[in-house]
Design a protein that fits this description.
Elements (H helix, E strand, L loop, with lengths): L1 H16 L1 E5 L10 E5 L6 H8 L4 E6 H5 L3 H7 L3 E3 L6 H12 L3 E4 L17 H9 L3 E7 L4 H6 L5 E6 L14 H16 L15
Parallel strand pairs: 1-7, 2-5, 2-6, 3-4, 3-5
Antiparallel strand pairs: 6-7
Helix pairs in contact: 1-2, 6-8
Length: 210
Amino acid sequence: MFYTLANAALRALLPLLTRWEVVGLENVPRPGSLIVIANHLSFLDPPLLGAALPVRIVFMSKVEAAQAPFLGLVVKWYGAFPVRRGEVDRQALRLSLQALKAGHALGILPEGTRSRVGRMQRARPGVALIALRAGAPILPVAITGTETAIPQWRRLRRPRIRLVVGKPFRLEPGQERMTKERLVVLSDEAARHIAELLPKEYQGYYGGYP
């Protein structure tokens, strides 16, 4: 209920607070399991994805957010579940696969943390592991403008925010043995689908920028 009400309120407020645009909604497959991946510029990115896409998304959230006094309640009400970054979190993997098996959309930000410079960082291998285990299609979404939203609000300006939804794809495991290195390669492949939807200056690691 909170997820539905929060997204309805956000959809009503966004035209007033921002100049936002969503492109490519026709690419969103329905119904069925789906992994939604996006670049990460701001804490605003997950709720924007929830408000913009016509599917119910179950998000991963860093464990620090889930344990915060007030934010933790919002994360819980929103239906997200915590994940420990920088390690193999078997509980988060199990919950991810359960959500996909139930036919939900799973929201993953492959970089693992928001970019401090506005450009994509290298993806972590978790997205490939989950996609291969679940056999689910992946929907790439490129986000621009959220990194400057708060500074512009402070100056009483409406930031320009744009979401571009790409075509869904699947990761193919190939004939090679599935090692950590192979998962990194496949996660890079998934992240490049996001980068291809972004302006050059946002592509970061996937546009030749360190």
